[in-house]
Amino acid sequence: VQLQASGGGLVQVGGSLSVSCEASGGTFRNYVMGWFRQAPEKEREFVAGISRGGGSTDYADSAKGRFTIYRDNAKNTVYLQMHGLRPEDTAVYYCAADRFLRNTRSSASEYEYWGQGTQVTVSS
After folding, report:
1. Which pLDDT score is estimated for 10?
2. pLDDT band at 118 (very low <50, low <70, confident <90, very high)
3. In terms of DSSP H, where are the helices of the chain?
4. 82 burial via Cβ count (<10 Å: 0-12, 13-18, 19+)
5. Is the separation of the CB atoms in 114 and 94 below 8 Å?
6. Do 60 and 88 form a contact (C-beta atoms < 8 A)?
7. Would strands 113-114 and 45-50 be described as parallel, antiparallel, or unpaired?
8. Is 18 buried (19+), middle (13-18) or exposed (0-12) by CB count in 10 A?
9. Please, are residues 53 and 30 in contact by the beta-carbon 8 Å criterion?
10. Which of 116, 123, 33 is nearest to 80 (CA)?
């Protein structure tokens, strides 16, 4: 499966932004999906994950209450809606997919497919 992330940009502190990731070349509903992010000189970290049907989600502590992950299997797309953005949310955001995971996982190494990333910059 190929993943194409989009929607990043520049936003002020406290603002909102939504990023999306469209999949192609596979049966999207068969994949557990995740969002990760990587800031300069930092390791890639888990942000949120969602089950195949969308009924189960998981969030990093830093994302809870501010970010929402959801998917539209008819559109082969997973979204990450972000509110209350902070400077520390500045990073390249990556979507990831895996066909064999039973549930969402927070380890990047467990996801097989990755999108190219989209930059999110929160300005103070």
Report:
1. 97
2. very high
3. none
4. buried
5. yes
6. no
7. unpaired
8. middle
9. no
10. 33
